Please model this.
Amino acid sequence: MTTGASKDRGARPTRAVPLRARRDLVVAYQSTSQGNRWVLKDPVADRYFHLRAEEYFIFQQLDGSIGFEELQRRWQSRHSPRRVSVAQLQEFCWSLY
Model:
C-alpha cells in the first residue's frame, strides 16, 4: 500500500487502496433493444450485475494495482469532459461486493 501526500497545505494525505475484482465473477456481453451491456454473475451469491459501458470500464480497471484516485483519473481521461467523484466510484465498487 502506498501513501501520497497532497500538495495543498493542511490537506490530509490519502492512501491508495488497491482495488481488485473477484476472479470468480463470470462476465458476459449482451446486446439488447435497450442497448449494450455487460452482465456480471456472482456465482457465490447467485446475483447478477448489469453494467453500462462506463461501469464496465471501471470493473476492467480493478486489477489490484490502483486506488480510487487513480481510477478517477483514468475514468475522467477516458470519458472527458464528464466527471466522477471518488465517492461515486467508492459507492459503485462497494455495490459489487
Strands lie at 3-4, 14-15, 26-32, 35-42, 47-51. The CA atoms of residues 76 and 83 lie 6 Å apart.
